[in-house]
Amino acid sequence: MELDFIAARLEGLEETIIHKLIDRAQFRVNSIVYIPGQSGFEGSKGKSLLEIRLYYQEEMDAQFGRYRQPEERPFNGDLPLPKRIVQIPDTGLAIDDYNKVNLTGEILTSYIGLVPGICLPGDDRQHGSSVVADVYALQAIAERIHFGSLYVAECKFRDNPDKYIKLIHSKDEEGIIAGLTRKDVEDLIIKRVADKVAYIQTRVNTKVRNVIDPEVILTYYRDYIIPFTKKGELRYLLNRIIETPLPDKRYPPHR
Amino acid sequence: MELDFIAARLEGLEETIIHKLIDRAQFRVNSIVYIPGQSGFEGSKGKSLLEIRLYYQEEMDAQFGRYRQPEERPFNGDLPLPKRIVQIPDTGLAIDDYNKVNLTGEILTSYIGLVPGICLPGDDRQHGSSVVADVYALQAIAERIHFGSLYVAECKFRDNPDKYIKLIHSKDEEGIIAGLTRKDVEDLIIKRVADKVAYIQTRVNTKVRNVIDPEVILTYYRDYIIPFTKKGELRYLLNRIIETPLPDKRYPPHR
User: Fold this and answer.
1) Nearest CB neighbour to A66, from listed B12, B128, B202
2) What span, in angstroms and rounded, lies between the C-alpha atoms of B33 and B44?
């Protein structure tokens, strides 16, 4: 539970997010995949193709134990139990249900808004491949946001428990957000992300690959990923077990 | 069916393969995931965790129609039918069953041999995440090999049908391979891939990300991806329908 380690992990997740977004950008916007009732998928009326794919993916992932990891929060609620035992080392977190910090609803909405910014307009009929790429991008973004939400908040709490206990007890949301905000760090992150987006794509053959504008990713980080992470940190702190911090392993096992 | 277009598509798939291998390299070798009977997964005795994950993934993908695409060949045989209609434009290919060109067996073996070359040794207990990354890397590698196998071979056939019809009828495998081989192009590809592996990783924070040696990927391309593609081209040509090239849409729909 060291802020340096957590920041480094968040930095590592940037690469993953960028790679997944570049993968999605190789297909057109294909907006029909986001429209409920237009999936053409047997037995799934009223859902979009993305919603269906996301459910199938999470149903599989749940059986492999993915959602036992604190930072892996599902977009769906009704998922099966794991079919294997996943050993989670002591996380150091103090919350009785990780889904109290689940921002997948707003992540999904913000992501669908991002797609026209990274993909060429129109429809290339590659609907299946598009939603596969969507799901991987969404999972990478959600992992980054939830990892930051949980561990940055816990870390900051430990650095100054008296201050945060007081803020939490008085439900001072603005005070908590102020305590969590470091504008200089945020500026550094969005600059670094934009640089990476540009750099990774420098040697790409633009005849065969669509290239993402770094500014679009910078804006998405600034307007969604960072604010959602802070919202998640706030939610973690408001739900943190303060009186008797139970050891993590006593928490009920859930998906 | 232009060789330039096909080569460009193959070049684009390089980026995808490299990104997926970099993702896998963030975990340790975790060799237990490749050992049959050691998965700890309910109801799947005698299989490795990778085999189980690969089956679940392909079962899902099959329902979304992935294997209607000629270049998407599954690693498993007993998969469900699609639950949606996938419109495949006329491919121009002349083969009655795409699985006559399915090299997934040797791809899987070669890939498991590659893992210790890109990952740090040991076990980090991230078994679930490792096999997820394995599956995505395998799918990207297989797509490249099967795309090349089918389309490069068909393209070369069309450029010189008399020559290939003669070679096919006399089952002259060595003559076919000689016709398909262009050493200068192969050298260019492996050099370009190694450059990309180095370049993509240049600005990575090596404290948090494991970096892949470009030479390892160069060797894998040279010794496996390119030879497997040529083997697939040979298999395509030996199975090509020569007498009456049926239009693709009359082929039986399969997974």
Assistant:
1) B128
2) 13
